[in-house]
Amino acid sequence: MKSLILSLFLVFSTLGWSQTEQVTRFHSEIKIDTSALITVSEDIDIISAGNIFKRGIVRYLPMHKTDSLGNKLAMNYEILSVFKDNNIVSYHTEKNNDNLVIYVGDKNSFIPNGEHSYTIVYRAENTLGFFSDFDELYWNVNGFGWDFAINEVSANVYLPNNAEPIQVKCYTGRAGSTASNCTSTQKDDHVHISSTQIGKNQNLTIAVGFEKGIVNEPPPPPPPSFLETYGLFILALLFFLGLGAYYLITWQKHGIDPPKPTVYPLFEAPENLSPASVGILHKENYWSDLITSSIVSLATKGYLKIEENTNKALFGLVTSRTFNLLKLKEPNDSLPLEELEIMNNLFATNSNKTLNGTYDSELKKVVDKYQSSINKKHKKLINEGNNYKFVILPAILIIIFMAIGIFLGFKTNSLDIQQFIYGAISIFPFIFIGFIFTSRLWSLKWIFIIVCVVAVGLFIVYMMKNPLTKDNLNLYSLFGFLTFGAISLGAYIKLIKRPSEEKLRIQSLIEGFKMYLTTAETKQLQHFNPPEVTPEVFEKFLPYAIALEADDVWGYKFQEFLDKSTLDKTAYQAGWYSGSSFNALKFGHSLNSNLSNSLSASSTPPSSSSSGSGGGGFSGGGGGGGGGGGW
C-alpha cells in the first residue's frame, strides 16, 4: 500500500511539473552607448519539467530590421557571456530563417526539473532610429516566438551620461497590436518599463526617444549600386534573349517536323505489328492496357483461356471479380516477343494463373519484364528525333542563373528566406505547367486550366504582399526568369522533337487502322470497301482495339453486324473466354477494364508537410525580439 501511494505521488508530482513548465520572468537591461551600440543583458527565469526545457533554453534574435526610410539593415550581434544559475554555461549558435539562434546548454546533458535562471549578454548594432528632431530606441523586448505566456516582462533602458528621455511609449500583444497594457516609470538613471499581461506569442515593445546629439549618429548606409539594384534584372534580360535566340535557331534547324503522310483507312494491322506494338508506337509510351491487349491476343490465338468469375457480397451491393488464365498449348517462335515472354513467365511453374486483386510478387515480375520487353523493342524508333541533347544547354543555363540569383539576392540583402520560400511556392505551378507540356497530361486540358488558375492566383497574392518596387526588382527578376525558364523549357522539349520519316510513316498507317476501328458509321468507309465485322474479324482485331482505346466503338460495330445478320445473337460466345453473358456492345470494353484493373491490383505492392515613441507604433515594430523556447 505504501509503495502504491509513493508511486501515485511521483506520478502526480511529474504531472504537476509538466503543467507549470513556463517562463516566469523576462527582464532586459539595455545600455545605450554614445557610439550607437547597445549592450543587452537578458534575465530569463523558467520552471522546467523536462518536456520543453530539456537541455536548456533557446533564444532567437532577428538578423535584419527595416529603418524609418525603408532600408533593410543587418542586425549584427556579439555574444559576450551566457550564464545559468549564476554560473557560466556552454552554448552554441546557428543561423536559421533569418535569425541568430542561441542554444544555451549542453546537447549531451539534461537540466534537472525545477526553477532555473538564465542570463544572456550581447552587443548589437543598427538598433537605433535617427529622426530630424530626436533619436530613438525602438525595441522588441522578448519577441513573439514564445509558445506560452510569460508572467512578467520588463526592461530598464539606460541612456548615455544619465540623459533623460523626452518621450516613452510601450506596446503589448501580438504583431501589429497597438494595445498598451504596460507601465513606464522614470528612475534616477534609467527608464523602467514592464507588463504582466504577455500571453502566448505576444511581445512587449518599447520606444524611448531622446534628444539628438546624445548618441553619435552613424553615417547612413551607402545606397545600393546600379548593379546591386538592376544587376539581376539585366542578367535575367540577357539570359532571356540568349535562351530565346537559342530556342529559335535550334528549332528552325532541328525541330521542324517533316510533312506527315496522308492518312487512309487501313483494314489490317500495319506492318504485321502486334497489338502492343501498335499501341506503344501510337502513344509513344507504355500504359497498363498494353499487357491486357497481349493477353487477349494470346487468347484469341488459342494459347490460353480467360475465365472470369463474379462474386457478390453485402446483398449484391459489392461486386468483385476473379480471373483465371489457363494455358492451353505451348508457345512457339511465331508469337511476338512480348507475347512469348508472357507465356514463358506467366506459366513458368503452373498452367493456371489466378488474378484476384491480391498482390502477387511473381505477377509483378511478369508485368515488369513485359514492360521492359515492349519498351526495348521500340525504344529506338520512338526516341529517334527527340533531340534531348539540345535541352542540356538551356537547362544548365537556367540552373546557373538560379544559383547566381540566389547568391546575389542573399549577399545584397535583397532576398530573405521567407520571400524566397513564398516565391518558390508561387512559381511551382508554373514549373508544373512546364511539365505538362512534356507529358501525356497535355491532352487533359482541364488539368492545365486548373494549374493555370492556381498559378495566376498565387502570383496575384504574391504581388499584393510584395508590390513591384526598385528594391525588390532583383527578386522579381529571379522568379520571373525561373517561371519563364520552366515553361519555355517544357515547351522547347516538345517543339524540338523531330520525328523520323519512318516513324511518321508507321504512325500514319496506325492512324488509318484506328480510323477503321473507331468509325462507328459504316457508310463513311463504304468507299474503301471495308470487310464486314464478322465474329472472326471482331476477335482478330479486338486486341488492337484495346491497345488503341477503341474497344467500345469496335463493340458497337460488331453489334451492328449482328443486328443486320441472320445469326442468333444469343448463340455467339467466344471460345477463348467464359464468364458473364455475352453482350457485343459491352464485351470488349468490359473485358479490357476488368482485366486491366485486376492485373494492376494484383501486380502493385501495398503502400507501406514611423517613430514608436511619438505614438503610431505597435507591438513588434522595433528591432530585436525574436523569441525563444526550450531544447
TrEMBL record:
Source taxon at top rank: Bacteria
Biased composition (Gly residues): 612-631
Biased composition (Low complexity): 598-611
Transmembrane segments: 230-249, 387-408, 420-439, 446-464, 476-495
Record-annotated Predicted membrane protein YciQ-like C-terminal domain positions: 267-556
InterPro entries in the record: DUF2207, YciQ-like_C
Name this polypeptide is given: DUF2207 domain-containing protein
Extent of the signal sequence: 1-18
Keywords: Membrane, Signal, Transmembrane, Transmembrane helix
Residue ranges annotated for the DUF2207 domain, each copy included: 23-210
Species assigned in the record: Profundicola chukchiensis
Region (Disordered) location: 598-631
